[in-house]
Structures are given as C-alpha cells and as structure tokens.
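Design a sequence for this backbone.
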C-alpha cells in the first residue's frame, strides 16, 4: 500500500512558476516509478512527467519539455514538479501517481494559470 499527498497548487499568471510536492509513504517505494499526471476540465487525464527513485531517470510529455522539471528527494520520500513558464493550457488538477504492479494515486491539487 502506498499513500500519496500532493501540495503546492494554486493560481498563477501566465509566465509564472509553481512547485508541486508529492509526499509518499508505504513499503517498497523504490520499486515504483513516480509520475505526475494532469486533467483539464472536460478532458482525459494525461501524462506529464515521470522519475525513478534509484537513478532518477526522467521522462516528459512533449507539451512540458523545457518548462517542467521532475525531481525526487529520497531521504524525504518526496517527488517534486517544478513548473516554469506556465501557460493557460497547463490549467488542471495535477495528480501524483506511483506506478507499479498496482498503481496508486493522490487526491490531486488544482493548478490554475490565468492569461
């Protein structure tokens, strides 16, 4: 069982920055790939970024490459998503997920980017 708690969402103007955090707890966290997804109103949930606990290997959706950075702090069991140069189309609920044999999800945090 893995528990995930996101924080750091909010309202920001276009061009601004936000940093999301995902505090994870549970056994064998290192066996999971951690990822961020987002869901805009009326749209399906989509992949944003992922990272492995060990080597810290990362991957990004094309829409956020060069603007978002995913990182992790193994000592704190926390994953971060630094979001820069935000655009209105980045608006949505951002979810942290632990991907493995079973996938776990956090409750989500709202990000709103005004134009």
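Sequence:
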């Amino acid at each position: 069982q893995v528990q995930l708690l996101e924080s750091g969402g909010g309202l920001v103007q276009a061009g601004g920055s936000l940093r999301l955090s995902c505090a994870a707890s549970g056994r064998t966290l290192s066996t999971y790939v951690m990822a961020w997804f987002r869901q805009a109103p009326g749209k399906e949930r989509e992949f944003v970024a992922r990272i492995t606990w060990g080597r810290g290997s990362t991957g990004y959706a094309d829409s956020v490459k060069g603007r978002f950075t995913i990182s992790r702090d193994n000592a704190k069991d926390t994953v971060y998503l630094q979001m820069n140069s935000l655009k209105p189309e980045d608006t949505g609920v951002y979810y942290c997920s632990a991907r493995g044999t079973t996938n776990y999800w956090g409750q989500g945090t709202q990000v709103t980017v005004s134009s």
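The chain has a mean pLDDT of 96.
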